[in-house]
Amino acid sequence: MKIYPKHYYPSIYHIPYNQLYAEGFRGIVFDIDNTLVPYDRKEPTGEVEKLITLLRKKGFAIVLVSNNTKRRVRLFARGIRIRSVFSAVKPLPFGVRKGLTILGTEPEKTLIIGDQLFTDVIAGNLLGLCTILVPPIQEKEAFYTKIKRGLEKKLLEYADIK
Ligand SMILES: [Mg+2]
Question: How close is the Cα of 14 to the center of ligand 1, in Å?
Answer without folding.
Answer: 17
